[in-house]
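User: Can you recover a sequence for this backbone? Please restate the input before giving your answer.

Assistant: Of course. Working from this structure:
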């Protein structure tokens, strides 16, 4: 029996695009180096940094499209589903799910059909983190000189960008780990988004 996907086609395509660009960004972060005044970089490092800039902008555009789509979408793809804390009822559902948080480590994750508000919150926060990366990356792109010169303000933005980059990497590891954990428990969460 073929069941209807949990998320609609635009949401699934946007999720795949965001996942792809974020994974590429994480991989690029291990081989690229941002320009520094007076420091020569190899052509490979320059190419990887430029690729990082363009893929980062693509990721930001995909997140913005996802958020715009959630404004007009219904059900599991809507803005209130993605950010349940924006309603009183959603906040109460999050609090109720958090109440059982310690049980998850003893008994395993609840079925996605039973607990959805906290998972949606995590997805929403992941989107906001990637959006933050795209916006700060764009500010760095605009504010950095051709040879890596930056103002104090751009330096602070770079620090925030690098810190949030680590948070996005952590998010990616935890997100994939939760998917694997759900799959091992028999919750077919992959079929919801593929």
């Amino acid at each position: 029996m073929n069941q209807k996907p949990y998320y609609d086609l635009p949401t699934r395509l946007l999720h795949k695009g965001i996942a792809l660009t974020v994974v590429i960004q994480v991989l690029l972060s291990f081989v690229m180096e941002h320009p520094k005044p007076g420091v020569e970089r190899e052509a490979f490092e320059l190419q990887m940094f430029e690729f990082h800039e363009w893929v980062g902008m693509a990721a930001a555009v995909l997140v913005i499209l996802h958020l715009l789509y959630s404004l007009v979408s219904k059900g599991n793809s809507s803005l209130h589903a993605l950010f349940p804390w924006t309603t009183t009822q959603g906040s109460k559902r999050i609090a109720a799910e958090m109440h059982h948080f310690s049980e998850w480590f003893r008994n395993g994750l609840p079925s996605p059909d039973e607990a959805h508000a906290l998972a949606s919150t995590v997805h929403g926060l992941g989107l906001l983190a990637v959006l933050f990366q795209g916006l700060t990356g764009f500010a760095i792109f605009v504010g950095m000189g051709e040879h890596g010169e930056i103002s104090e303000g751009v330096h602070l933005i770079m620090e925030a960008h690098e810190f949030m980059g680590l948070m996005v990497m952590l998010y990616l590891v935890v997100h994939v780990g939760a998917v694997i954990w759900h799959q091992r428990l028999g919750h077919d969460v992959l079929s919801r988004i593929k």
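That completes the design. The chain has a mean pLDDT of 85.
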